[in-house]
Amino acid sequence: MQAGKLNKRVTFQEPLHTDTATGGQEEDWGNDLTVWGGFRPDRANEKEGGGRLEATVTGLLRVRGSNETLSINEDWRVLIDGEIYSIGGIINPDQRGRELHMTVTRGELV
User: Fold this and answer.
1) Contacts from 69-75 at CB under 8 Å and sequence distance 24+?
2) pTM reported for the whole predicted model
């Protein structure tokens, strides 16, 4: 993987679940992991719903493999340019853990 193609600082966040006083659970985000990544948007969609326009952007995020990045899974989220993206899938293309490719999506269609 060429270092020049990893031109964005991306921050991964793991979901944290804590019990509330009423017996429920509250979700928060923590254990931030910031690394260099390369992001390429692939497609964007729009749909009108509830009187407003909802948009999604889907793309491919590539990061170097490390002990930390190999612990990321689809429950986590990633911040790219200050925007929150969900992780849809993670591929280890060479099966050696040298790099990871992730399908990420920002926004929701209603």
Assistant:
1) 69/12, 69/33, 69/35, 69/100, 70/97, 70/100, 72/12, 72/33, 72/100, 72/102, 75/14, 75/15
2) 0.82
How many helices (H) and strands (E) would you count in the chain? 0, 6
Q: What is the pLDDT of residues 3-18, one digit of tens each?
A: 678 999 999 999 998 8
Which is higher by pLDDT, 39 or 51? 39
Q: What is the Cα–Cα distance from 47 to 50, expressed in whole angstroms?
A: 10
Cα separation, 6 vs 109, in Å, equals: 29
